[in-house]
Amino acid sequence: MTSYDKLYIGGRWVAPLGDEVIEVRSPHDQTLVGVTPEAGFADVDAAVAAAREAFDDSPWPHTSPEERQAMVEKFLTLYAERAVEFAHLVTSENGSTIQTTTGLHTFIVPGQTEGYLRAARELEWEEELPSGAVLRREAVGVVAAVIPWNAPHQSALVKMIPALLAGNTVILKASPETALDSLALAEVFEATGFPEGTISILPAGRETSEYLVGHPGVDKIAFTGSTAAGRKIASIAGRQLKRVSLELGGKSATVILDDADLDQVAQALKIQSLANNAENCQAHTRILAPVGRYEEVVEKVKTMMEGLKVGDPADPATDIGPLVRPGQQERVRKYIQLGIDEGARLVTGGMQVPEGLEGGNYITPTLFADVSNDMRIAREEIFGPVLVVIPYTDETDAVRIANDSEYGLGGGVWSGDKERAMNIARQIRTGGVNINHAPLSFDGAFGGFKASGIGREFGAIGLAGYVEYKTIDVA
């Protein structure tokens, strides 16, 4: 069992100012994984005070970009030494399969961090303009990073790393479901040797999140989570004129063109649609299939889903683990019933919990066909292994259906013709489109259109979200 009795505030391990604790229980069998303190309002006040002092009165924001880059490089080296350990810890907390968490900690985290380092090395932090004026890029100030439980280290570091590279101080508010790994992450920051006050990490619930977001000592909020929570955070930030970036929900569509290799598509959807138990904001949960190949697509996806191994997330052979908590399991089961009630055809899966896994938060991977895009199962983010197949008549109809959503985070196109696929991709109103399961680009920009968010992460564009611009006119 992993347990902590202190919080990490301003680069120091300190006793919490309250007596509330967080018990983290296994989604697989409800056993106790560990215990941490739960941060309260007074702990937030202490973290903000430390961050403010470090930003306003210490050398950290004025260190050279090269010094800050060296710090992040050291952090990444130390992180890599514990990446596999962290993967197992997160799996025990949130039920993500060890396949998923290993990829997140050994590939995604290093990849996104290296992308930020490349951007920081290439950025002109101070430059002379053609007019003779000087343009400076400076830190925003105190950054509050608020993250969910589904990919905690990825979500944390995609915010913390660019903030630190720009010279900001950072307070990370971690989700109670993954409280343990957040304090394990603090150990790496401590070993790296960031200056006192620069970093605080607070596991806590929603009320403490709102208190941190509204704190007058915070200059920018960086949030990943639900669209509903994002709207509330944006309203608080708007009242206070705080900088804000929001990475929110999605209901991504993958468009299968009539010349696509369906065997390749089905195998890739195992990852694109169902990775991380489909508790994944950019999961391709709407599958758009041409009417001429509709039943063929349904059958291929059905075969793939029925071949998935559901079970203990710590088993390397497992494809789908338990959902994070009983409430999420119940939410997904209600959507399955809703799909049946709406008249969709239940192809595979259903309300039953997989046999032998009744003690965990498990869902049988479920596929619906004969779905129209106005059904709630096609419009609302379910956040679980439930996929829908929607027919389309031609490419114009496919683009119309893909764009008929309040969300605009991700999506995909499948075709044997690259230019044909690119033509569709250019028309889909989302922050990212993947063609034929292409690898993720860490130098691009990740984020959403419409209700999927404000701002972007990754690379130079993500780094720019933690920078203020100052023009100095010189006589």
What would you say about this model in short?
The protein is an alpha/beta fold and 475 residues long. It is 40% helix and 21% strand. The protein starts with a strand and ends with a strand.
Question: What report would you give on this structure?
Answer:
The structure is a single chain. With 475 residues, the protein is α/β, with parallel strands linked by helices. The protein has two domains: 2-248 and 452-472, Aldehyde Dehydrogenase, Chain A, domain 1 (3-Layer(aba) Sandwich), CATH 3.40.605.10; 252-441, 3-Layer(aba) Sandwich (Aldehyde Dehydrogenase, Chain A, domain 2), CATH 3.40.309. It is 40% helix and 21% strand. The chain is built from 14 helices and 23 strands. A seven-stranded mixed β-sheet has the order 15-16-17-14-13-19-20, with helices on both faces. α4 (152-165) links the parallel β8 (142-146) and β9 (169-174). α2 packs antiparallel against α4 and α8 (262-272) packs across α9.
Per-chain topology:
Layout: E1 2-3, E2 7-9, E3 12-14, E4 21-25, E5 32-37, H1 41-57, H2 65-94, H3 98-122, E6 126-128, E7 134-139, E8 142-146, H4 152-165, E9 169-174, H5 179-192, E10 199-203, H6 206-213, E11 220-224, H7 227-240, E12 243-247, E13 252-256, H8 262-272, E14 284-290, H9 294-306, H10 326-341, E15 345-348, E16 366-369, H11 376-379, E17 386-392, H12 395-403, E18 407-408, E19 411-414, H13 418-427, E20 434-435, E21 449-450, E22 453-454, H14 459-464, E23 467-472
Parallel strand pairs: 1-5, 8-9, 8-11, 9-10, 11-12, 13-14, 13-19, 14-17, 16-17, 19-20
Antiparallel strand pairs: 2-3, 4-5, 6-7, 7-23, 12-22, 15-16, 18-21
Helix pairs in contact: 2-3, 2-4, 2-5, 3-4, 8-9
